Prior knowledge:
Elements: E1 2-3, E2 6-7, H1 11-30, H2 36-48, H3 55-68, E3 88-89, E4 95-96, H4 99-139, H5 145-181
Antiparallel strand pairs: 1-2, 3-4
Amino acid sequence: MIVDGYKFASSRDTKLAIKEKNAIGKLQESIDINNTESVYETYNKLVSKNYFTTPVGLAFLKEMRDYLKQYYSEDELKPINVIDRTPRNDNNGHMELNYRQFEKLKQENESLNNIKQKLIIAIVAMLVVIVGMVFIVITNDNLGYFNAEEKVLNKYAAWEERLSGWEDELIRREAELSEQGK
């Protein structure tokens, strides 16, 4: 979380500082330090577009400004814009945000809304499934496992009654046959 001697509080700020450090390296390779007009134009573009916002980038701009002071007056050099990245409350208690912070919060809000919609759809689908299952249980006479033991016992009881009836019939016929045989 340390970049060029600056310690950053968040990984987001650290990544931004690393990105700025890499950009500074590319700029230093491409700028001809002996061509003050080129350095002056590059400095003005960077300051105008607020390209650097971390202390790493601002220190680079300060170095460029100090170099250009040898050739240009203070009035000819644009001041370096320092963007306050910490949100503050205004007089109404609302958070003051810069454009980048606002856009990031807007994107996060959109993604959270998408997640919220998907969760609502999933919850509704689960509720439909649960209501369907309850409806099936209520309207189905065959409750499956819960009445299985009772059904088996009733089936065996019916078989036992039939067998008892057949046994009684057989005993009665045997008695008739033995009386006829005597």
